[in-house]
Structures are given as structure tokens and as C-alpha cells.
Amino acid sequence: MLAIVCPGQGSQTPGFLNEWLDVPGVREHLTELSAISERDLIAYGTEADEETIKDTAVAQPLIVAAGLASARALFGNELPSSAILAGHSVGEITASAISGALNEADAMTFVRERANAMAQAAAVTPTGMAAVLGGDAQEVTDRLNELGLTPANANGGGQIVAAGTLEQLAALGENPPAKARVIPLKVAGAFHTAHMAPAVGVLEELSGSLNPATPSRTLLSNFDGEPVADGEANLASLVAQVSRPVRWDLCMETLAAQGVTGLLELSPAGTLVGLARRGLKGVKTLAVKTPQDLDAAREFIAEHGA
């Protein structure tokens, strides 16, 4: 069984779209998505530096557009019938569009407004996120609680992402939990925490103008790792996700329980494959980073997607 997964913020790197523009149809597709997002995603994905694409208002539409473009280049309109889809944080919007729970125009509209609202919320107080690798899970959680930090992403494989003010994160880095490493992430705010509450209202208002549909394939929620019931439930979950923790560990547990044998990560790929190698032992993985990976991806789909 095949899992198709879509990465979240921090997966973008300067120039990662350059080679994709040589794939027939990708430039035109990205141009369409740029118009909806009201950003020149081609320029951001080919010319912009790391600091520019770290900006929440840029990073989120860029990541979703890259996932949609690589999915179309790989699948066309023939998504494997038995595939399970999941996305991490903003990648959940990508997965929703690929599954049909949102059409592409609605997905790009949603991520545009999400990115704007979250960037505005992040500007109120200097905040950020840091990955805590290793250590005892309870000791890590206790240390975060002690500092007033939120375990914003439970990623499995011994990784918890802490989110909060820069002062709180600095204190964590200076005195980390035993046997744990703290690595700052390339994001501009404390996502999936109460700091993002103002963005929830914006997206709740937007939701009434969108057209959610029942996904054509199994689509997992970041909330509890379970399949979403329908398009309306998925959209409500996407809205709430902005200020509540991402439970990627539960998504991986569901993938394992469903008997997934292969996990394929769409562009900008690499992060979720890394988590799967630690948290989904025995499951084969493939990261679609560049067009050179497409042939291998097709073989991978043929092996695991029947």
C-alpha cells in the first residue's frame, strides 16, 4: 500500500524549483497558482534567497504550489486508487487538494489567506520553533511546560517541535532536556500554538466561500491521525490546525496500521521521509526532490500502489 505525503514549512530551499521548470506544463501550472496566491512563486522558487522564502507569507503558498506541481507531473489525473494521503502542517492543504477535498483554486486561496494571517499573528510577538531531538518524551514535555513552550509538533521518531517566544526557546537551547538536542527551525513564528489564534477567525470567515468535497482517497488529519469524514470536516480541521498541535506521530501510526509498505514524499521533499525512516521501520521511502526522481517514483508507485 502506498502513502503519498506532503511536507510543511521549513522544507523549502533556495532555487528548489529551477529544474522543475523544464518539465512540460509545470511553468504554466505554477503561473496559474501564482495568480491565485498573488505572489510570483516561480521567482521565489528559483531566485530568492533563504531569508526571503523563510517569510511565512511566501513559504506557505510556495510549498503548496510545489507539491501540487510535482503531483501533477507525477500522477497527471490518475492518482493511485489505494493511496493514503497525508500532509504535515501546511502540507495538509496540499494533500487536501490532491485528494479532491479542496479544488486547487480553493487550496491556493486558503493557503494565501492562512499565510497572510499567520504572518500578521507572528509579527505581534517575536516567536519561533525548535526541534527537540532525543531525550525521554516525558522529560521533554515537562521541560517545555516548565518554560511555557508548546509541543507544537509531535513528529514521532524521537522528535518534538517546541514553539513559543524567542526568549523561551533560548532558555530551552541553553538548558535542554537530558540527552536531547535543540535545533532552531527556519520558520518565522510559533505555529500551531495560541500565538496563532487571530488567524483562526480569518480562516473561519473565509471557509464560507470555499467548496469542500469528500476526498476521493483516504485523507488523514493532523489532529488525530484518523481519516477525515468528509470535505466539511476536513476544512474545519484545516482551520483549527493553525492554532493546535500537529500530531504527525499519530498519522504515522495510522499508516503503519493500514499496512503501508511505501511512503512517497512530494516536493519539496526530504523531511517526512527522514521522519518515516525513524518512525516507520520497514516501510520503504522515496523523496521526489527533482524531476530526476520521477522515473524512480513511477516504479515505486507500481510496486506499492496496486
Tell me about this structure.
The chain has helices at 26-37, 41-46, 50-54, 56-75, 91-99, 104-124, 137-147, 166-174, 197-207, 231-241, 248-257, 271-279, 294-304; strands at residues 2-6, 84-87, 127-134, 150-156, 159-165, 180-184, 218-219, 246-247, 262-265, 284-287. It is of the alpha/beta class and 306 residues long. The protein folds into two domains: 2-122 and 193-304, 3-Layer(aba) Sandwich (Malonyl-Coenzyme A Acyl Carrier Protein, domain 2); 124-184, 2-Layer Sandwich (Alpha-Beta Plaits), CATH 3.30.70.250. The strands form two sheets. It has a five-stranded parallel β-sheet, with helices on both faces. The mean pLDDT is 95.
Largest sheet: 5 strands, parallel
- Indicate the radius of gyration in whole angstroms: 18 Å
What is the tally of helical segments? 13
Strand residue content: 15-25%
Distance between the termini: 7 Å
Task: State the share of residues found in helices, binned by percent.
Answer: 40-55%
How many distinct folded domains?
2
Name of the CATH class of the largest domain? Alpha Beta
CATH architecture of the largest domain: 3-Layer(aba) Sandwich
